[in-house]
């Protein structure tokens, strides 16, 4: 296993990049702990696969260094870095049996035959293919082949890190849940450093100890699933994490209040004057529907019953606003206002979260 350090790292696919816009991966400075499980989460094209390929040695960065522990591996190839990588689409040997595919990385390193047999059986059981070890890989479904690829990536216990590049794309939904659970159990058992690339927030949040949310070539926040939900550091994190994502409303902030289209919203903290594009953000879980004069006036567009709860879709000053309502809760007569729990409101300037000068004392569940 290895601690992985990204030191002043950046990458451009252009031969002579002239400015920040020319970089697919903008400057990164991070230290990822030995033996932890990380996810790289973001939309297509955000730079997560580029970063994974730099860590694996498939790409040499335009600038900066990669360290495994205290060793600079920036120009070392994948073999020298002693890592395993699982790709989005299965890479296996069709002419070999399932068992031989799983055993190949161990035989290639001259491991003991008894150890190989035991380890292959263990991994085959984990991926649900213990009954297929003697079957040729040719002719198996893409789903089955990807499970073999996953197993082969995890069969070695001596690697510095295991890298997964959207490995569950071709796996059916039920098996995805099982494999994520088994990957997490394997991580707890053996303590490999694992990095898992995905655009699926469920995969990222259920697999990883910490999630690096990427946007436009940057890691805009690195934190635990709880930290990403409770305190999004960037508006993209608020939008991308959660279903529905965080509500964002244009505002003018002064002291402990925000003014949104002429309506005052009390905040949970006091803020200095802000420049640029200013917004307040609040998750739908902390929005309530009410009648009367308090709160923001909205037009209710529809209510969606998703089983565990209801999603209220509304509009304020031309801006969509969502609220999570309890399952089966009727809409009160005359309800046309949304109230926010002030201690849950974040303030953002040019998309980045702004820390308050100090908190305002409020009851724990007070709403505006």
Automatic annotation (TrEMBL):
<feature type="domain" description="ABC transporter">
    <location>
        <begin position="4"/>
        <end position="241"/>
    </location>
</feature>
<dbReference type="Pfam" id="PF00005">
    <property type="entry name" value="ABC_tran"/>
</dbReference>
<dbReference type="GO" id="GO:0005524">
    <property type="term" value="F:ATP binding"/>
</dbReference>
<dbReference type="InterPro" id="IPR003439">
    <property type="entry name" value="ABC_transporter-like_ATP-bd"/>
</dbReference>
<dbReference type="InterPro" id="IPR040582">
    <property type="entry name" value="OB_MalK-like"/>
</dbReference>
<keyword id="KW-0813">Transport</keyword>
<dbReference type="InterPro" id="IPR027417">
    <property type="entry name" value="P-loop_NTPase"/>
</dbReference>
<dbReference type="InterPro" id="IPR003593">
    <property type="entry name" value="AAA+_ATPase"/>
</dbReference>
<dbReference type="InterPro" id="IPR015853">
    <property type="entry name" value="ABC_transpr_FbpC"/>
</dbReference>
<comment type="similarity">
    <text>Belongs to the ABC transporter superfamily.</text>
</comment>
<keyword id="KW-0067">ATP-binding</keyword>
<protein>
    <submittedName>
        <fullName>ABC transporter ATP-binding protein</fullName>
    </submittedName>
</protein>
<dbReference type="InterPro" id="IPR047641">
    <property type="entry name" value="ABC_transpr_MalK/UgpC-like"/>
</dbReference>
<dbReference type="InterPro" id="IPR008995">
    <property type="entry name" value="Mo/tungstate-bd_C_term_dom"/>
</dbReference>
<dbReference type="Pfam" id="PF17912">
    <property type="entry name" value="OB_MalK"/>
</dbReference>
<keyword id="KW-1003">Cell membrane</keyword>
<keyword id="KW-0547">Nucleotide-binding</keyword>
<keyword id="KW-0472">Membrane</keyword>
<dbReference type="InterPro" id="IPR012340">
    <property type="entry name" value="NA-bd_OB-fold"/>
</dbReference>
């Amino acid at each position: 296993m290895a601690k992985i350090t990204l030191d002043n790292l950046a990458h451009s696919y252009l031969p002579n990049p002239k400015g920040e816009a020319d970089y697919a991966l903008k400057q990164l400075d991070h230290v990822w702990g030995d033996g932890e499980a990380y996810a790289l989460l973001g939309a297509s094209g955000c730079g997560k696969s580029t970063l994974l390929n730099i860590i694996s040695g498939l790409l040499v960065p335009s600038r900066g260094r990669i360290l495994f522990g205290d060793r600079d591996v920036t120009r070392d190839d994948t073999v020298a870095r002693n890592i395993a990588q699982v790709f989005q689409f299965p890479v296996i040997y069709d002419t070999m049996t399932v068992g031989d595919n799983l055993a190949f990385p161990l035989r290639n390193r001259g491991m003991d035959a008894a150890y190989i047999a035991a380890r292959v059986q263990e991994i085959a059981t984990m991926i649900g293919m213990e009954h297929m070890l003697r079957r040729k890989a040719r002719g198996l479904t893409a789903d089955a082949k990807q499970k073999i690829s996953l197993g082969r990536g995890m069969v070695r216990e001596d690697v510095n890190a295991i890298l997964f590049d959207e490995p569950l794309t071709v796996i059916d939904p039920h098996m995805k849940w099982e494999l994520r659970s088994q990957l997490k159990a394997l991580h707890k058992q053996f303590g490999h450093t694992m990095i898992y690339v995905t655009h699926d927030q469920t995969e990222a949040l259920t697999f990883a100890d910490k999630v690096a949310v990427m946007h436009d070539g940057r890691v805009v926040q690195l934190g635990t699933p709880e930290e990403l939900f409770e305190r999004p550091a960037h508006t993209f994190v608020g939008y991308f994490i959660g279903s529905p994502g965080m509500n964002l409303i244009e505002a003018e902030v002064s002291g402990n209040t925000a003014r949104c289209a002429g309506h005052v919203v009390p905040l949970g903290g006091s803020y200095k004057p802000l420049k640029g594009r200013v917004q307040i953000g609040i998750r739908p879980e902390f929005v309530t529907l009410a009648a009367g004069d308090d709160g923001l006036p909205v037009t209710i567009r529809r209510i969606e019953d998703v089983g565990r709860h209801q999603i209220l879709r509304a509009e304020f000053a031309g801006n969509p606003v969502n609220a999570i309502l309890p399952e089966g809760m009727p809409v009160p007569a005359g309800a046309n206002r949304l109230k926010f729990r002030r201690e849950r409101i974040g303030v953002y300037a040019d998309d980045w979260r702004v820390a308050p000068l100090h908190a305002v004392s409020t009851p724990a569940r007070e709403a505006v």
